[in-house]
User: Fold these one by one.
Assistant:
Number 1:
Amino acid sequence: MKAGIVVFPGTNRERDMAIALRSVTGVAPRMIWHREIELPDLDLVVLPGGFSYGDYLRCGAMAAHAPIMPAIRRFAQAGGHILGVCNGFQILTEAQLLPGALLRNASLRFLSQDCFLRVERNDTAFTRHWKRHDVFRTPMAHGDGNYIADQETVRMLEGDGRVAFRYVAPDGRLDAADVTLNPNGSMGAIAGIFSENLRICGMMPHPEDLVDPLMGGEDGKPLFTGLVEALVG
Amino acid sequence: MKVRVTVMLKDGVLDPQGKAVEHALHVLDFKNVGDVRIGRVIDLEIAESDPARAIVQANEMARALLANLVIEDFAAEVVE
Amino acid sequence: MKVRVTVMLKDGVLDPQGKAVEHALHVLDFKNVGDVRIGRVIDLEIAESDPARAIVQANEMARALLANLVIEDFAAEVVE
Amino acid sequence: MSKAAQKPVDAALAKEFGLTAEEYGNVLSIMGRTPSLTELGIFSVMWSEHCSYKSSRAYLKTLPTKAPWVIHGPGENAGVVDIGQGLAAIFKMESHNHPSFIEPYQGAATGVGGILRDVFTMGARPVANLNALRFGNPDNPQTRRIVDGVVRGVGGYGNCVGVPTVGGEINFHPAYDGNPLVNAMTVGVARQDRIFLSAAAGVGNPVIYVGSKTGRDGIHGATMSSSEFDEDALAKRPTVQVGDPFVEKLLIEACLELMATDAIVAIQDMGAAGLTSSAVEMAGKGGVGIELDLDNVPQRERGMTAYEMMLSESQERMLIVIRPDRTEQARAIFEKWELDFAVIGHLTDTGRIVLRHKGETEADIPLAPLADQAPVYHRPTAPALPPVPLEAISDPVGIEQALLRLIRCPDLASREWVWNQYDSTVGGQTVRRPGAADAAIIQVEDTKIGLAMTTDCTPRYCRANAKTGGAQAVAEAWRNITATGARPLAVTDNLNFGSPEKPEVMGQFVDAIAGMGEACRALDFPVVSGNVSLYNETRGPDGESVSILPTPAIGGLGVLDDVSKAVGLGMPDGCDLFLIGET
Ligand SMILES: Nc1ncnc2c1ncn2[C@@H]1O[C@H](COP(=O)(O)OP(=O)(O)O)[C@@H](O)[C@H]1O
C-alpha cells in the first residue's frame, strides 16, 4: 500500500502514524509537506494528529487552506481513500470534505485517556478487519473533539450509515449523555464518520498509538491491516 | 483602517464555555446574570481608505477563514 | 439588557493567534491586511434596566473573572 | 522608552536593579567609568541570583557529577548520559515558580517551553516531559485558581509541541500558598556524535538569531525570579511572558534539521535574561569576543531601545554561531519553517561584548571579568529549626478509617485529573504512562532501549531534617527507577528554597545538598544538570516573610537495555507478595 502522510506546521503525530503504517506495510510512508501542490501516486492519504497552526483560531481552520489541500480535494473527487485522525479529522471538516464541526470538549478540558469505540459497520476499507459492533480500546488526546452538526446532517449521517465509530462502554453500551462513556460530549457519541462514498474517514481517537503490545496493546491495528488488504487487494 | 470581525456561535449551537462562565459568575454571587455567550473578535488592520470597501474585504476574510459558517455567524464593523 | 464585554490582549503582549491568522490571511492572498489581534467577547444578559448600572456590574464581572488583567484589557458596552 | 531609561546611572539605580553597593563598586572598577544603562542592565542580570548562582555555587560544586556513562555534566544547557548504541539521553529540570504565581497558565507554559529549549539546543529530540508541582493549602481559594492554571499551562504547551508528559508529582502545603513551585523536566535523545555545545568559536563567524521576534515582554524577569516575592509582585505584572508553543514546535523541527548538517559551531537558547545571557555565555565560554548589531534583531514592537532588546525575555528564540559558508543553507531551513532568521553579529578576538544600535555603541564590556568577578557568597548559615515534634501515635479511628482518610488526603489522592489533561501517548513510544509504574518509561524510537524517568521529593521530610530529606529524595528517585527494572544513571535537580539571606534557610540549603551528595555518591547516581530557585517567600498575614518548605526536587533517569522487560505496578493474578527491607 502506498501511503502518504501530510505534514502541516504544528502537526505532531506524523511519526506515530508512520510507525503504525510501516508496521503493517513494511515500508515507510511518504511524508508530504503542506506546501506541495501535487500528490504522488498514492493509495491512501493520511492527515495525522497534532496542532496544525497551533490550533489557533479554530482547530484545523488554517490547515484547511494549505497549498496541498486542492490536490487532496482532487484525490478525494477521484475516489481516493483519506484517513483523518484527530487534527486530521478537524481539518477534513474545516475543508468540508466531511460534514459537521468539532467544538471544545464539553468539560472544556483537554482529555488524554483511553476510550472504547464501537465499530458501526465493517463493509468499508477502514473497518473491514472488525466485525460490526466490535468494541476496541484506543487512546484519545484532544481538547476539541465534541462532534456537532445540524439536525438534518445528523439525520443524513445516521440514515445513510455514515457513522464510523461511537464512544461506548467496554461492553458496547451506548449512552451519549454519560460523560464517562462519551467523554467529549459528541452528538450521538460520534467518534468518527465517513464521506458519502465511504472512502474518507475522520475520527478523533488515535488507533495509531495502540499497534504495539509494548505500548499497551494492538487494539488499533485492524484499522491499518484492513486498509492494506482493501487497498492492495 | 481598523475593522473588527465578531464571530459568535449560531443560535441553537450549545456554548459550553458560555455555560461554564455563567455558572462561575453565579458562584461569584453575580446573581443578575442570565444567559452568557462567548465569541471571538478579530481586529484587522486593513490598508484601505473606503470604509465600505474595507467591510467587503473583512466579510470575505470572515467567510474564507475567520468564521466557520457551519456553526458560527459573524459581523464586521469599522472601529477606527 | 445585553452587555458585551470585549477582552483584548494588552498592547505589547504577544498574540500568537493573531500572528498566525495574519500569516494565513496573507497566504490566502488578502494582501491588504496588516496587524491582526484576536480577543474574546462575552455577551452577558443582565437583569437590570439602568444601562449605567449594567455597565458597572459588567465591569465588576470582567475584573473578577472575565478578563485576566495581568495580560488583558477589557471594555464593556450595552448592545441591546 | 522604559522609565528607568530616563534616570542617571548611579548607585541608587544600581540598587533598584538589584546590585548591592559592593557589587556596583566592582562594576565601576571593571568598567573604569560609569556604565551606560544597557551595561548596568547586563551586569544586573548576569550577577542576579538566577544567572550567577552567587549564593549556591560554592555548595553545588560539592555534588558528585562524574561517572563513566556521563558525557556532559553541569555547565552545559542540560546533562548528557550514554544510553548505549551510540545514543545519549539529554535532560534537565528547571523552575518557573514566580511567574506561575503571577500568571499560572503562562508561567507554567513558558516554564515547559524553556526547559524544552535547554534540551533541544543540545541536539536532542525531546521525548518526554515531567513536572514537579507544589501548591498551597487546597482550601485556599487561590490554590484552586493556581492549580487550574498551572495544569492547563503545562498541558497547553506540552500537548501542542507534541512531547508526551509522562510523569511528575504534586504536593500541597500552606507554605506554598503565595509561592507555588512549578518545576518542569524534559528528557531528549540524541546521537552521541551530534551533541551541540554553547562555547562559541571562530573569530569572524556570524551570529544568528532565529525564532520569534523580540518584544518588551519579561524585561527583568531574571531579577524578579531572584528577588523576594511580595505584594510588589502585582506591580511587576506586565513582565509576564506569553508563550507560543506552535512556534516552539517549528523551532524544534528547524533546529533539528539544521543540526543534521555540520553548519552549527555553537548554539544556545535565549532563556532568562534573553539575548544578554546567551551572547555573554557563548562568547565567554569560548574565550572570544562578540559584537552585535541590534538594528538587525527581529522586533515585534516599535521603538525598542538597546536596553530593552538585551533584557527582553520574549520566548522561543535561539542564538547560533554558524560556519560562514552555511548561512544561506540555514536561512533556507528557517524560512521553510516560517521562522525569523537574522544575522545579528559576529565573533571577534577582543574578549569583549560590544553592542551597536542606531549608530551608537550601547555597551562595551570585557567578558572575562563579567564572568570571573561575578559575586560568590558564603552566606551565614544557622542550624535548621528543630523538627516539629511528632505526636505520639494513637489510633482513634481504627485502621480502616485511617486508610480511607489517607486515600482521601490531597497528597495521596489520585492524580488522574491532572495527567488526563496531559497528552502522554504522542510519539507512540510511551511504554508506561502516568500511574502505570513507579517511573514512566519511554522507548527510544527504532531501538529496544527504554528510558525510565521520575521526579521525587518529600518536602516535609526536608523540613524535619534537610540532610536526610535531601538524601531521601535521591534514594526515592533511585528506587522508583529500579522498581521498573531500569538501571539508574543520573539525576537532575531543582533546588527550591526560601531566602538565602535567612541563615536558617541557607542552613537548610547547605544540609540538603550534603544529603543529596551523600546519597548520590553511595548510589553512583551523579548529578548532571540542575537549577536553583531561591527567594521562594511570601508575606504572611502579619507582614513577616514566610519561606517555603525546603524542596530539593530530584529528577532521575535510568535505562533499560531491553524495554520489553519493564515492570509496572499492576499485579498479575496468582502472584505472591514479598516485602523487602525492615519496617
Ligand atoms: N504533575 C504531574 N504530572 C504528570 N503525572 C503526575 C503528576 N503528579 C503525579 N503524576 C503521576 O501520578 C502517579 C502517582 O504519583 P505519586 O503519588 O507522586 O507517585 P509515587 O509516590 O509512586 O512517586 C505517578 O505515575 C506520577 O508520575
Number 2:
Amino acid sequence: MIKTKFLSNLLLSLIWVAITGAFTVENFLFGFALSFFLLWVSATDRRDNKYFNRIPKLVSFIFFFLYELIKANIQVAYDVITPRHYMEPGIVKIPLDAESDLEITLLANLITLTPGTCSLDVSEDRKVLYVHAMYIKDKEEFISSIKNGFERKLLEITR
Amino acid sequence: MNNPYIVLPVIFQLLTSVLLMFFWYRVNAQRLITIICSIISVGIATWLFKEVYQNGILTMQAGEWQAPFGITFVADLFSTTMVLLTAISGMAVGIFSTGSIRNARLKFGYFPILNFLLMGLHGAFLTGDIFNLYVWFEIIIIASFVLITIGGEKAQIEGAIKYVTMNLLASAIFLTAIAILYGLAGSLNMADLSIQVAEIENRGLVNVVAILFLVGFGIKSAIFPLYFWLPASYHTPPPAISAVFGGLLTKVGVYALLRIFTLIFIPDEFLGNLLIVLACMTILSGGLGAILQVNMRKIFSYLIVCHIGFMLAGLGIYTELAIMGAIFYLIHDIIVKTNLFLASGLIFKLKGTLNIEKLGGLYKKYPKFSLLIAIPLFSLAGIPPLSGFWAKVFLIEGGYKENEWMLIGFIILGSFLTLWVIAKLWSEVFWKDAVDLPKKINVKYFHELKPFKRWAMVIPIILLAGTSLYIGLAAEHIIVLSKQIAAELINPTAYLDAVLGIKSQTP
Amino acid sequence: MSIYDYLYYIILPTLSISILIIFVRFLIGPKLSDRVVALDLLLTTGIGIIAVYSILSDQPAFLDIAMIMALIAFLGTVAFAYYLEKRERND
Amino acid sequence: MKTLIFKTASTYLLPLLVLFSVFILLRGHYLPGGGFVGGLIASIAFVIHSFANGLEQTKNLIKFHPGFLMPVGLCIALISGAAPLFIEQSFMTGLWFENPIPVIGMVGSALFFDAGVYLVVIGVTLTIIFTISETL
Amino acid sequence: MILAILSGFVLAGCTPFISKFIKGKGSLLLPILPFGLFVYFFSFLKEIGEGQTFRFNYDWVPSYGINFGFHLDGLAILFALLITGVGTLVFTYTTSYLKGHHYLDRFYGYLSMFMASMLGLVLSDNIITLFIFWELTSISSFFLIGFNNDDPKSRKSALLALSITGLGGLFLLAGMVLLGYIGGSYQFQELLSQSTFIKEHTSYGWIVGLIFIGAFTKSAQFPFHFWLPGAMKAPTPVSTYLHSATMVKAGIYLLARFTPLLGGSAEWNTTLILVGSITMVYAAIHSVLRIDMKGILAYSTISALGILVFLIGLGTEASLLAAGVFILVHALYKATLFLITGIVDHETGTRDVTVLSGLSKVLMPVAIAAGLAALSNAGAPPFFGFIGKDLIYEATLAYGDWAMVLTIAAVVTNVCLLFAGLLAGVKPFVGSLPSNFTSLHLPHPTMWIPPLILAGLGLVFGLFPSLVEGLIVQPVFSSMVIDGAPVHIKLWHGFNLVLGLSLLTLTLGVILYMIVKPSSSLFSKTLKFEMIAPQTLFEIFGKFFNAFARFWTGLFQNGYLRNYVITILGFLTILLAYRLYQGVNLYIDTKQLTALTIYEVIVALMMIVAIVFTVFSRSRLVAVASLGVMGYTICLIFLFYSAPDLAMTQFSIDTLTVILFVLVIYNLPKYKNFSSKAVRIRDGILSVFFGSLIAILTLEVLSEPLNRETSIFYAESAYLLAKGKNVVNVILVDFRGFDTMVEITVLVIAAIGVFSLLKLRLKSIEKE
Amino acid sequence: MTELLVYILSTSGAVFILLAAVGIVKMPDLYLRISVTTKAATLGIGLILLSAACYFNDTAITARVVAIIIFMLLTAPVGAHMIGRASYFTGVKMWKKSKVDDLKGMYDKKTHKLKSGEENQ
Amino acid sequence: MELILVVIIGLLYASGIYMMLRRSMVKLIIGLILLGNGANMLIFLLGRIVKGKPPIIDSTAKMLTEIYADPVPQALILTAIVISFGLQSFAIILVKRAYKITQTDDLDELNTTDEIYE
Ligand code: NA
Ligand code: NA
C-alpha cells in the first residue's frame, strides 16, 4: 500500500513537473508536496501495481495500439469518403477476463479509441463488455480478435 | 484628502458576514453578532460622517493606485450621509430581525445575506468608479434576490420571478451603458469620466449613453414606466426584508441617478423635461396604485413609487434648491419607509394579517403602539412639521423658479394621495372596530413571543421614529446638510479635486 | 509557402470547414444524442484550431486553453448523458 | 450513471484536474489563468467525480461541506486585501516578499488574494451543483 | 411666548402618560392651561389697545428663513383670546360632558394639541410656520372628528374633512411658497413692505388663487363646505371649539391677515364677494331646512363664514370693521348654541328640533343662555349681534353699484340665520314639555355655566360696546386696514336705513319662524336637492377618480411579466431611437477595421446560426445545447482577439452553465410556445429594432477615438509596479482587485441563495 | 527537419479531423457516428498538437502537449461510452442494416442495471 | 470583422429580448443569458479588438510596448462573466423552484402578487 501510494505520488509529481514545464528540484519537491496532499485528500483503494517490470511490455503495447489505430482509421476513412457503406455494424457482447476496474476501463477505452468500435457499457456483474462495432464479418471472429488482441496484451501488462 | 479607512463601513460589513457564516447553524450566536456588529457599524458610519463633515471630501485609492487607474472610493457628504442612513436602517432591520425572523430562515444564511446587502449598499455609495458601482449593484441585487426568496413561499417566488427579471434586465442595460461609455471615454473613474465626457465632441452619443443610464438606474429606482417589479414583489418576503428593500434599495437607484446626472451627464433640455414628465407620471402611478390597495405593504410599496417621483422631480428641475429638496426627501424616506415596513411587521405579529379591511381596533387595544406607528405614518403623509413635509417646500419653490407648474401640480396631487391613503389606513387599521380574525396556526403572535423578541421588534421602531422626529423637528440640521450636498452635486469641482488632485486642474 | 502561410491558408480553413460540417450535424440532429455528439466533436476540433492558432500567433500560452478544453469538454457530454438517463427514469 | 468505466476514469481524473487547477492558479500572474479559472477547474474535477461515483462518495472524499470554503476563501481574500490598512495604506495595496520563491515566483498579497478567490469559487460551484444534485 | 404656544403640545404629549389622572379628578385641573393662557394674552390687551404690537423671534430653520416668529397684534390677540377663552370654557364643559369616558385622556390630548396649533397659526409671522400650524389644526380636527371611531360615519366624516382641508392645505402651501419666493421672504412683516411689488407680479393671480383654495376649504366656503356638516359627528365640545368658534375661522383669519398684503385688487374682491355671498345664502337656506340642531348650527356656521368672507371681500373700511366685529359676535353666540346643543343632546338623547320642546322647565339656566344667544344671533338690540348686523348692512349699503344686490343677499341670509337661531336656541325650550323629558335634571354646573358666560358676554358687549371698541375692535381693524380711520362702534345710530333693515330682518325672521314648522318630511325633500349638491359632485368625481386609478394601475401593473418587459424596452427603444435620430450621424471608418479571415467568418457564422437556433428551437434541451455552441464560439472569438483569460473562463463557465441547466430542467414541463403569431411578430419587430439600435450605436462608438491612458498605464506598470506579467490578471487581483473582491462575494451570495432556495422548506407548523 | 514534421503532422491531423467531420454527417446512425468521430478526432487533434510541440520545440510545451493528449485519451472514450449508453437507453435506433444487437433487452428498465446474460454461469 | 461582430451583438441583444418576451420561464432565462453575452461582446468590441496580441508581458520584457489588446475590457468582462454565472445559476434554480410550486412554466399564470385585492 505504502509503495503504491509513493508511486502515485511520484507519478503525480512528475506530471506536475511536466505541465509546469520547469524541470527543477524545487518544482519537483513542490509538486511532490502538492500531490502528497492531494492523495491524502483523495484516498481511494488502488491495487498494488508493479510498475517497473511492465515497462517493456507497455512500450510494445503502445506500438500495437498505434498500429491498430492507424489501420482502423484508414478502414473507416475509406468508408467515410466513399459514397457506399461497406460496413456491417452491430452490438456485440464480449466476455471479459479482465477483472480489476482499471483493467476493464483501460480495455474499454482502448477499444473505443480504435476506429470502428466503441465500448457501450460493462454489465453490472463485470462479466461482459458490450461493444458497438462497424465491421462484423463474423461475430465469433470479432470477439476473439478483441480478446486475443487488446485484452491479452493489456492483461500481460497489468498482471 | 486621502484616508485609507473610509472603506471601513464596507470592510466591517464584509467581516460581519464572514463571521456570521462561521456560525451558520447557531442562530443565537448570529443574533448576538448581528446586534453588536450593527451597532458598531453605526458607530463607524457616524465616525465617517463626522470626519467628512469636518474635513471635507475624503478619498481612498484602492491599492494606492492613483485615480483614474485604480478604483477610487470617495466619501463626500452625499455618500457618507447615505452610508450613515444605511447603517441606521440596517441596524434597525438587523435588530428587528433578531426578533421576527424565524429560526429556519436564520439557519439558511439570512443574517450573512442581510449584511452582504448592507455591504453592497455601503460600497455603492462610497465608490467613485462606475464599473465598481456596477459590481456593488450586483451584490445588492443578488443579496436581495436571496432575501426575497428565502423561505420559498409561493407568493415570494412569484414576486421574485418578476423582481429578478427586471433587475437583471436593468443590470444588462447598465452594463451596456458602461460598455459604451468606456468605448467613448476610455475611463471608468467617475471623476475622470466627468472630465472626459465633457470633452467628447459627439454629443449625440453622449446623450444616447445618458438614456441608457437613465433607464438602467430608473428600473432600479422604480420610476415610471419601469417600476412594475416593485409592487409585484415588495410585499412578499418577511417584513424585515421588505423594510430594508423599501427603505434602501430603490434609493440606491436614486442615489446613482443623482450622482451620474450631476457628475457625468449634465441633463440637457430634453433630458430635463423628460425627467420632469417621468417624475409626474411616477408620482401619479404610485399614488393611484396606493389608493386601490388593501394590503398594507402593497400600499407602502406603491407609495415608494410615488415618492421616488418626488426625488426624481428634484433632479428634473436641476437647481440647487430642488436637488436639496430631493436629498432631504431621500433622507426622510429611507428612515420612514424602513420604519413603516417594520411597523407592518409588528402589526402582522399583533393581528396575523396585513389586509386593512380585516384589520382594526389597534388604537383601542394598543394605544401606545398606535401612537408610535403614527409617527412614521404621518411623517410619510407629510404632515408638518414631520419629516415628510420639508422637502416639498423646497421642491415646490424649486419648481416655481423653473416655471414647472405641471410638476408642482403633481407634487400636490401626490402629497394629497399620500395623505388620503395614510388617513384611510389609519381609519381602517387603527380606528375601525376589530374584527375577530381566525388564529393562524403558523403565526407566533406578539404576546406569545419571549420578552427579548418583543423588545427586539419594538426598539428599532422607536429608534427610527425618533430619528424621523429628529429629521422633522431639527430640520435645520438636515436642511443645512442637504444644502451642502446639493451644492457639492451641482458644482462638483471639490469632488474632482479630491479624486484627481492636480489632474483636474489641467484637463 | 512558409509554414505560417501553410497553416494559415490550408490547415486553418480545413479545420474551419470541418467545424462547419460538424455544425450541420448539430443542426439537423435529429436526436438530442446526435447533437451532443456533434457538440463534443466541435469542441475537440476547437482544440485543434487553438493549437494551430497558437502557432500562428506564436503564443504557446494558448495551448493552455486547449488543455482546459481537453479536460472538461467531455463534461458537457456527460451531463447530457446524465440528463437523458434521468429523463428516461422519470418518464 | 455509476458506470464502471466512468468511475474508474474519474478516480484518475480527479487528482489530475486538481493538480492542474493549482497550476493554473499559481501561474495566473504571469500567464493566462488565475483564481477563477483554477477554482472552476477544481470544482469541475469534483463535479465529474460526483457524477461518476455519486454525491455521497464525493462528499466523503472532501470530508467537509464545500460551502465551508466560501467563508474561508473570503476571509483569506479579505485579510490579504485589508492587511495594508494596519500600516495605514489603502485596501488592496500590494505587499510583497522581497525575493521570488521558486516555482511560484513573486509572493505577495495578490497571490493570497487569488488563492482566496480560488477557494471561494470552488466552494460556490460545489455548493450549487451539490445542492442541486441532492434535491433533484 | 413660544412656551405659551407650545405648552398645548407638551400637555398633549403628556396625556398618554397621565391618562389615569385625567380620567379621574384631574380633568378639572386641565382648564387651568387655557385659562392661564387667556390671562397671559389678556395682559397684552392694554398695550395692544394702545396701538402697540409685539414680536417674538425664535430660530428654527434659519438657513431657509423659517422661524418661530410670532407677531401679536390686534387680529392675533382677538383670535388668541377667542382660542384660549372659548378653550377654557370648552375644557371645563368637557369635564362633565365626557365624564368617565374611556378615552378622555386622548380627547384632551387632541384638544390641547389643537389649541396649541391654532394659537401658533394666528400668532405666526412666518408664513411657513403659519402653514405648519394650519396643517396641525387639520390633523387635530381629523382625530377629533373621528373620536368616536367605532362609528363608520364618524370615520368617513373625518376622512372627508381631512381630504378637503388637506388638499386645500397643500394648495395653500404652494401659495405660501410662491408668495415667499416672489416676495423674497417668508416673514409676513417683510412681505408687507413688498406689497405693491407682489400685487403687480405676474404670479399674483396664482398666489391669490392658491391661498383662496386653502382658505375656502378650511372655512367651508361653497363649494367646499360639505365637510363641515359631516364634521359634526365629533363630540359637541369639538363642534363648538373647532367647527364654529376657532378652526373654521382660520381661513377667515388668513384672508383678513392677507388683506393688507394682497387685498384690494379686483381679483381679490370679486372672488371673495362671489364665493362669500353664494356661501352665505346657500348655507343659510340650507340651515332653514334642517331639523337636527347640530345640522342647523353647522349650516348657519357656514353661512356666517360666508358672511365673513363676503365682508372681507368688500374690502372697504366699513366692511372690514364689520368683519372684525362679526368674528367676535359669531364666536360668542354660536359657541353658546353648540354647547347648549350638547347639553340637550346629553340630557335628552336627541337633537331633533321637531321632538324637542319646553325644556326651559327643566333646564332653566340653559334656556336663558340659549335665549340670549338666539337673540344675539337674531341681531336684536341691545345684543352685540345687533351691532354686528348693523355694521354688515352699513358695509353693503356703502358698496357702490352693487349695494342693492348685496344688501338683499345679506338680508335674506340674516333672515334665514335668524330663523335658524330661533329654531336651535328657542324652539327646544318653549312650549310644552314632553312627558319623557320631565325627569331631566340640570347637569353639572361645569356644563351650563360656560354657555351662560358666553351668551352673557354677547349681551354685555352689546350694552357696553366701548368695552371692546378700544381694546379689540380698533386693533383688529388696524391690523387689516393700515392707516385706517379710528373706529367707533355703538349700539344706537339713530333712525336710518340700517336700522330699518335690521328691523325688517327681525320681523321677517320671526314671521318665518311662526309660519314654517320644521318637519322631517321637509327635510327629506331637501335631501333630493342634494343630488346636484357639491358633495354629490365630489363623490361622483371620487368615483371617477377611483375608476381612473383602477384603469391606470391595471394598464401598467397588469401582472404579466412580458408586458412589463415590453413596456420597459419599448420605452428604452423609443428614447434611444429618438436620441440617435436626433444627434448621431452614421459613419463607418473602414480603414480602422480589422481584416476578415475565413476561420473568423466561419466561427461568426456558426455563432449566428447557434443564436437563431437557440431562439427558434422547439426543445429546450436543444436550446441549451445551442447556447453551449454559442458560448463556445464566443470563446473562440475571445481567443482570436487576444483574450486567453476570457476564453478560458468563458469556456469553463459555459460548461458549468450547461451542467446546471441539464441538472435542473429535466423535470420541467414541455417547452411550449404560448404566444400567438401576432404577438411573436410584434415582439420580433421590437427585438430586431432594439438590436439594430444597439448595433448602430456600437458602430458609431467604434468610429470615435479611444482614450487609452488607463490601458497604457496598466501595460507599463503591470510588471514594474505590480510584479505580474499577465496584465489582465494583474488588473483582477491588484489594480481593480476590489471588483474581484465584490465579485466573489456575489458568487458566495448566489451559492447561499441556491442552497436556501432548494433546501429551505418552511414547515407550515413552525411558527413565525 | 522540424518544419517538415510540422507540415506532416498538421496535414494528417487536419485530414483526420475532416474525416471525422464528414463521418459524423454521413454515418447513418448515432452509434456509427460516435464510433467514427471519437477516434478520428482524437487522433487528428493529437497530431495537430504534436505539430505544435514540434514547432515550439520546447520541453515545457512538449510536456504540456503530451499532457493534453493523455487527458484526451482518458476523457474522449468515457464521453463516447456515456452518450452511447444513454442513447441506447433512451431508445435511439440502430441503422436498419445492423447485423446483431446483443444489448437488446439487457438493460433493466427500472434500475438501469445492465445484465450480462451470463449471471448463472 | 468588427462589422460582423456588430451584427452579432445586435443579434444577441435582439434575441435576448425576444426570448425575454416569451411566456416560458426557461426561455426567459435563456433570454437573460443571451443578453448578458451581448453585453460582454459589446464591452469587448468597444475596447477595440486586436488580433493575436494578448496583454501578456513577454518573459523577457518588462512592459508591453508594441500594439496589444486593451486588458481593461477583458478584466471587466471576466468580472461580468463570473457575476452573470452567479446570477444565472440563481435564476435557473428560481425557475425550477417556481415550477415546483406552481406546476407551470407559463409566466402568465404567475400574476397573483399583482392583483389589487388579495
Ligand atoms: Na473503435
Ligand atoms: Na474581477
